């Protein structure tokens, strides 16, 4: 059994990327894993100041919701990030969280497997490439971690439009492989 953390970065109600996160989490739970789901909706997550104090203290100087989320990331074996694709990139709130996860760099973090779940109005397969590459840059800083998989739901724009989309099964099946 692994500790799986699913972080959804969409701020929209009935978000398509949230639906991917839900299916991934359901698959991971059905495989017998301990699953925790966090949404960035309603969270106070401020920008990194670049002071690098966290590299010595392993704690951020900013007191907001990011500290608790980063602590959960530290203790997870698997992390899945779900994001809508905006202008061919991950959401700003996801990028801000990744920047604020800097205290993890010098720590003895547990995570090894990272997943990316994306949705966008555009259908072309290349649409999530920059978002996945952006997460890949973050993963490259954690030599014990790797990108274990990604799912893209294209052609979904309106809230809840993902219903019945084949990517939901792909997300569920990907979560179900964790164990």
Walk me through what this model shows:
It is a single chain. The protein is of the alpha/beta class and 179 residues long. It has one domain (3-45, 53-164): 3-Layer(aba) Sandwich (Rossmann fold), CATH 3.40.50.360. The chain is built from six helices and five strands. The protein has helices at residues 16-30, 54-57, 66-75, 92-100, 129-140, 166-176; strands at 3-8, 34-39, 78-84, 113-120, 146-154. It has a five-stranded parallel β-sheet with strand order 2-1-3-4-5, sandwiched between helices. Strand 1 (3-8), helix 1 (16-30) and strand 2 (34-39) form a beta-alpha-beta unit. The longest helix is centred in the first third of the chain and has 15 residues, at 16-30. The protein is globular and about 45 Å long. It starts with a strand and ends with a helix. The model has no long low-confidence stretch (mean pLDDT 97).
């Amino acid at each position: 059994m692994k500790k799986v953390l699913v972080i959804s970065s969409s701020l929209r109600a009935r978000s398509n990327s949230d639906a991917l996160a839900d299916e991934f989490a359901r698959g991971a739970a059905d495989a017998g894993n301990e699953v925790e789901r966090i949404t960035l909706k309603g969270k106070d997550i401020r920008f990194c100041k670049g002071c690098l104090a966290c590299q010595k203290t392993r704690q951020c100087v900013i007191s907001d919701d990011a500290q608790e989320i980063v602590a959960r990331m530290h203790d997870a074996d698997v992390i899945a990030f779900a994001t809508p694709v905006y202008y061919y990139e991950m959401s700003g709130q996801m990028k801000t969280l990744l920047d604020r996860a800097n205290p993890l760099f010098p720590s003895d973090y547990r995570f090894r497997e990272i997943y990316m779940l994306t949705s966008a109005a555009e259908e072309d397969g290349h649409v999530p490439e920059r978002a996945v590459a952006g997460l890949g840059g973050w993963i490259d800083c954690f030599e014990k971690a790797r990108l274990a998989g990604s799912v893209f739901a294209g052609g979904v724009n309106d809230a809840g439009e993902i219903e019945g989309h084949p990517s939901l099964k792909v997300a569920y099946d990907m979560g179900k492989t964790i164990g």
